[in-house]
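Q: Joint fold for the lines below.
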Amino acid sequence: MSKLNLLDALKDKGFKLTVQRRRIIETLRQLGGRVSARDIHQALRKKNPSLSLDTVYRNLRLLTEIGLVHQISLQSGAVFELADDRRHHHHLVCIDCEKVACIEYCPEFPAYSDHAASEGFTVLGHIFEVYGRCTECQNKKQAANI
Amino acid sequence: MSKLNLLDALKDKGFKLTVQRRRIIETLRQLGGRVSARDIHQALRKKNPSLSLDTVYRNLRLLTEIGLVHQISLQSGAVFELADDRRHHHHLVCIDCEKVACIEYCPEFPAYSDHAASEGFTVLGHIFEVYGRCTECQNKKQAANI
DNA sequence: TCTCTAAATAGTAATATTCTTATTTGATAA
DNA sequence: TTATCAAATAAGAATATTACTATTTAGAGA
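A: Joint structure:
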């Protein structure tokens, strides 16, 4: 999804195109993947000192909920990335070392939208994260148990 | 999964069976679904004043990561429930009114474990949440736009 | 363009969650 | 049973995230 389409998508769903939202999306794109709310806030504060941290959080949550942004929950806090830079995907998080790997898989939309419809829900977005152990941490674990 | 099996599962994965863990699991069962870390902490404080809130958070995260507990991320904070009380399931969350509905669907394990394996990951658990709008909030939204 | 209104924001306060470090404890093996 | 040690905990400090409220603003329509 291009930048324009992102803004269109926001508008289509009935949300306003505020300057803050434009800037947050722009910054998500500029900084690349896996940035925290604080990262975005600090980057934007340089030129727009009045930007509220609350606004960053509020919009990241909104963008996540309507599927335009991916959220990755690490122990150290949440990080985000635009959902449009590559094919829709999710993440593997190592519970020992916090390493993140991309997983080229997404729970298929039709598979659960039917269930959602039966509950009267209109689906907008989702969060899907897989937890496990990476190769190195599995080996460490085994070595410790010898 | 019965209570004993839960404890066995913890042990099998190499985690210690501390009294705090037993009590947290026991409380999750007693309080039923969708309790917050604070709920659990307060319930246990009555009889065990020294229990640390940090311990509750740490264990809820661990239990979630290894798939024994479900986490639901609401705007007001995260709530949890044992994964064993009924068939494995997930949740629909209304982004307007925060209503939660159960969705009898889970991204099938084999479908993504292959992807995970190719990255060298051993899968332990996952978080899957669907965001959307419930019937009432869709109607409100439409009424407002007339 | 001007007005109007619900939605969004800024600033700050309040909570929620995680981190740090010294101490305790479950599990293992002698 | 006892010693040992990595894992887990308690307590409190530090961050992360959300809530509250007065004010501003995007978008719709006159």
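Q: Anything notable?
A: Chain A has a mean pLDDT of 87. Residues 16-19, 36-38, 53-54, 57-58, 61, 76-78, 144 of chain A lie near DNA strand D (CB under 10 Å from a C1').
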